[in-house]
# Entry
Amino acid sequence: MTSSLADVASSDAALRAFLHGLPGVDRVGADQRAAVLGTRSIKTTAKAAAIDLAISMVDLTTLEGADTAGKVRAMCTKAARPGGDAPRVAAVCVYPDLVEVAVEALKGTGVRVASVATGFPSGRTSPEVKVSETALAVAAGADEIDMVIDRGAFLSGRYMKVFEEIVAVKAACGEAHLKVILETGELATYDNVRRASWLAMLAGADFIKTSTGKVSPAATPSVTMIMLTAVRDFRAATGRQVGVKPAGGIRTSKDAIKNLVLVNETAGEDWLTPEWFRLGASSLLNDLLMQRQKLATGRYAGPDYFTLD
# Structure
């Protein structure tokens, strides 16, 4: 960290001054830029490569109260072998109590296990519970932790509380990577998205993530672009690279490819790998596989050709 950023979190006042000193986001300009990038046309071999890259970036997710061990095992099988010669996905994301099931099912496949934690999706629980839940998920074998920030604390200006909770959860992660969910649909302004992104990165996040998927709007192109700008600028300032994970509402191959264009044109090629960019989704994988088959055979398969997630 550069000397100018080393003391940012030395006090609540210093952290507040830094976050509110960040350049404001031009909402009109951001929306127009994201819309223009969304019109880029990707065809033929480039489209095929983009679809395979998008598959390799998917965090295949199930976060429902009705989740069962059987459902998670089936999803893990699909994650490791989506179909034909399609690449495996990046990770499977589940609730903490199903981490052991996923770890066992994915052993030797190279697919990582991610677990939501810290009172997902609201984040409204004590710091002690957040740290304990994280530690239990890591002990069960989770490679990655997706934590939610306390949006109430952030929106009321208690930035140091949010910062300290991220620091504590990061410490509890040990070797596991930490993805910090901002829940951008509740942050109200693009300026808040930028501030929350920087706050999470300063506190040690390995990834910043748009949403839980439980709040709308979720991963809009404009929000994703603002977060990509933040990680680009953060690396320029500190030398540390942080990943980005849009999640929620990404359902089609067209959506996925638009996100890849956003990455390339905003952060750059260094982020165009599963190590630095993920797509949190449940239904997206089937559409990517359908489009992949269409490119290979010239025909669309029916939706019941692929297993339901």
